[in-house]
Design goal:
Shape: globular
InterPro entries: Endo/exonu/phosph_ase_sf, Endo/exonuclease/phosphatase
CATH topology of the largest domain: Deoxyribonuclease I, Chain A
CATH architecture of the largest domain: 4-Layer Sandwich
Protein name: Endonuclease/exonuclease/phosphatase domain-containing protein
Number of domains: 2
Domain Endonuclease/exonuclease/phosphatase: 81-194
Number of strands: 15
Strand content: 25-35%
Distance between the termini: 41 Å
GO molecular function, one term: catalytic activity
CATH class of the largest domain: Alpha Beta
GO biological process, one term: cell adhesion involved in heart morphogenesis
């Protein structure tokens, strides 16, 4: 699939990769970059994104390091598109584990720009026509509450494994995704593959650059927002310094997205520092 160079973005769940498998071994000289999240404990699981080297992107860190989630912002000529790839194993999962995954997803999906959330969620009892569940499964109810709180729409309407819709494709912009097809499994997988198109201008000659304009930020609202946060409660739920940092980073990022407007500037008008200018001409 990579050698064909047919796709701009490929998402793989249950990648079964470990740290002994090098990125270069997977890419093998193909024109892609790779973002992956391997399972920390045990075999199997994991997620992996292959991104065409023609598409610039930013890797987004995941607050909960045990969640099998890979996340990037694709940098199109006109806007960012957040891509979140998730694998959720239901084996030996407690309700606490599930809530932890949902919190990670919420932290990285509460953005003000286009979002695509996809992956294998293993939630077979959700009626996606009515966004409801007839079971008393708390996890499925919590997941529905999560996607409805963010205004996400689920686009897959045909089974992806057996008679169940386990693999989901959600977005906050209905017109962003088109031409969805469900195809047969690849190799030894027992899940169908999903193919779709993302609607954006694939023209990277545009030299417009977006940046957060902090001069125009509403600091009165920002301060009011921060004052409503119980920081002691937020930080006492963090198990280590890494989780504390990512939690704080996520809060700041969401505030910037919500209350700091973006401005545009031509990239050729960006003034480089003098020492960088000197390096350019070496």
């Amino acid at each position: 699939m990579l050698l064909e160079n047919r796709y701009k973005l490929i998402g793989v769940t249950e990648s079964w990769l470990t740290d002994i498998v090098d990125d270069n071994l997977l890419l093998h000289g193909t024109p892609y970059n790779i973002i992956r999240t391997d399972r920390v404990k045990g075999r199997g699981g994991g997620t992996c994104l292959f991104i065409s080297n023609k598409i610039p992107f930013i890797k987004i860190e995941i607050p909960n390091t045990t969640s099998e989630i890979s996340c990037v912002d694709l940098l199109t000529p006109t806007e960012k598109i957040r891509i979140i790839l998730t694998y959720r194993s239901s084996t030996k999962e407690t309700i606490k584990d599930f809530k932890s995954i949902l919190q990670s997803l919420y932290d990285i999906s509460a953005v003000s720009y286009p979002l695509i959330l996809l992956g294998d969620f293993n939630l077979p009892n959700i009626d996606w026509e009515n966004y409801s569940t007839q079971t008393k499964n708390t996890k499925e109810t919590l997941f529905l509450e999560y996607i409805q709180s963010l205004g996400l729409k689920q686009k897959i309407d045909k089974p992806t494994r057996g008679v169940n819709i386990l693999d989901l494709l959600l977005t906050n912009e209905d017109e962003l995704i088109k031409a969805i097809t469900i195809n047969p499994p690849i190799s030894k997988s027992d899940h169908n593959t999903i193919e779709f198109e993302i609607s954006f201008t694939n023209n990277y000659q545009d030299n417009t650059y977006k940046y957060p304009n902090f001069r125009k930020a509403n600091y009165e609202i920002i301060n009011a927002h921060f004052s409503t946060i119980n920081w002691n409660l937020v930080f006492t739920q963090c198990s280590d310094i890494n989780q504390l940092y990512f939690t704080f980073q996520s809060i700041i990022h969401n505030v910037i997205c919500s209350y700091v407007p973006e401005s545009k500037v031509k990239s050729n008008n960006l003034k480089k520092p003098e020492h960088i200018e000197k390096m350019t001409f070496i």
